[in-house]
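Quick sanity check, Putative ATPase:
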Amino acid sequence: MPTEQLTARRPEIGADELVSTLVPPPRFDSVRFSTYVPNPAEPSQSEAVRSCSAFATRLADSSTRAKGWRSWLRRRDGGQARQGLYLDGGFGVGKTHLLASIWHEAPGPKAYGTFVELTHVVGALGFAEAVRRLSGHRLLAIDEFELDDPGDTMLVNRLLRELTDAGVFVAATSNTLPDKLGEGRFAAEDFLREIQSLSARFDVVRVDGPDYRHRGLPAPPEPVSDDELAASARAWSGATLDHFDALCDHLARLHPSSYGRLVDGVSAVHLRGVRPAADQAIALRLVAFADRLYDRAVPVLTSGAPLDTLFTEEMLAGGYRKKYLRALSRLTALARDALDSQPAR
């Protein structure tokens, strides 16, 4: 039987599904505050658990007040209590785990999605309809908040102003971190400056520490031969096999918000002829694709160039450095999973 190809898939998400499918990805189905294991050497992680748990409790408490909850949200000094929580930190410190834990503890209705998914919702439904559908939610959780595109950023900022005015709580994590900001972390003050009038509604929680998936820079497994790759794809029920260049072309024809559905139900992804990304547009699509593979815990086996050459030195020295390093970290973890769980042939 021929091995299935991702390039043969044409995932589509109907307008009516857009909001109903905004839930944490499978990898984070069962995470809770109690399953987050803080690094003893990083006290900010324990403090982050406490802060996120307190935010979730305050959110839950507000939903039990059928009347007068708006007055409850006002501080005794007459100011507005903060309805937003922003998790600031590097990759691999558990920000998504904490964000998903907030979502699981919060009462419904609630929505969870990436920044890209949220912009797609607004684009597909229209701004007014997106506000209408989301304004009745108790929580909107946004993973991977980006500052890549000023237009998208301002669109989402406007959306968040409308939603918080309607009483929706918002929790977010950072994503794109310009290299000049240093220390491998997002500059919270830059984020707060970008969201302008929303800044007074967000508490910033720092989550420091090294990437929990790896010690130091990730060292991916060596790529296999093309013959080994094909044999693995045949033996692995539900696996896919694609040429790397063909997959890159296919990703360019899909909206990044559909990348998750592209790999839904896939047991393992096999890529032949991996090579460095030809340009930054391809590289950023590969980052989004790697994130969705990681969300769904899909092992990845490759032939061709090693995974740690996927992004050029020039790319790694640029403004998207943190995003590329996160993708390498996640792909390396998935490549190790592939070697550990390969079926016998």
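Posting the structure with no commentary besides this: Residues 43-63 form the longest helix (21 residues).
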